[in-house]
Amino acid sequence: TVLVVATGNPGKLREIQPYLEGLRWELKLKPPEIEVDEVGTTFAENAALKASQVAIATQNWAIADDSGLEVTALDNAPGIFSARYGLSDGDRIDRLLRELGDHGDRSARFVCAIAVAQPDGAIALQTEGICLGEILTAARGKGGFGYDPIFYVPDQGLTFAEMPAALKQEVSHRGRAFQSILPRLKALDAE
Ligand code: ITT
């Protein structure tokens, strides 16, 4: 059976793929011409929208990730608008650092919602993972993607961008979401 990975974000894809490769699905990439309007108001709604619409358009199973960064002092912005906060990763980081300024409360969290849809669009599985951290005042590290260079995880003493890929997979919002959904994905895959 084919499973379409419903993302156009290469950074996400790199992190999602290792979790799916051990399964029996035949993985396919979302055709770029399929674009989903992310009109939901939560990560979970947008993940479900992406998975359903791509499943229906391709007539295959589909898995989607909707994720973002919630900064406490910015009333949880950028949140579901994380991808739309600027035109490039650099712009998005600059804007976030500018809006946060020298605010004393640097606390933030990354959220990742995952949804799996069957070919008729019905949602078969959903989960969410979070990772708590702090926003630094300047970027650190070269790994990962997106906001990783400014997201510091106190438990590890590293930003996401400073972590070896395997460590980010272990502690990140996306890693936690996949760890929690993997047994159910395996059960679906075995059907
Ligand atoms: P798709 O919808 O095609 O999957 P997207 O990038 O538009 O790609 P989202 O709407 O879910 O996806 O936006 C997620 C944004 O949140 C992403 O573009 C990054 O800026 C940020 N983000 C999510 N996970 C991240 C991570 O692990 N590290 C850094 N930034 C992350």
From TrEMBL:
Cofactor binding, per record: Binds 1 Mg(2+) ion per subunit.
InterPro entries attached to this UniProt entry: dITP/XTP_pyrophosphatase (IPR020922), ITPase-like_fam (IPR029001), RdgB/HAM1 (IPR002637)
Alphabetized, the UniProt keywords read: Hydrolase, Magnesium, Metal-binding, Nucleotide metabolism, Nucleotide-binding
Look up the EC number in the record and give it: 3.6.1.66
Binding residues for substrate: 7-12, 67, 145-148, 168, 173-174
Gene Ontology CC, one term:
cytosol
Question: Known catalysed reaction(s)?
Answer: XTP + H2O = XMP + diphosphate + H(+); dITP + H2O = dIMP + diphosphate + H(+); ITP + H2O = IMP + diphosphate + H(+)
The UniProt entry, under NCBIfam families, shows: RdgB/HAM1 family non-canonical purine NTP pyrophosphatase
Q: Assembly state and interactors? A: Homodimer.
> Which family does this protein fall into?
Belongs to the HAM1 NTPase family.
- Name-wise, this protein is dITP/XTP pyrophosphatase
Organism in which the protein naturally occurs: Myxacorys almedinensis A
The gene from which this protein is expressed is: rdgB
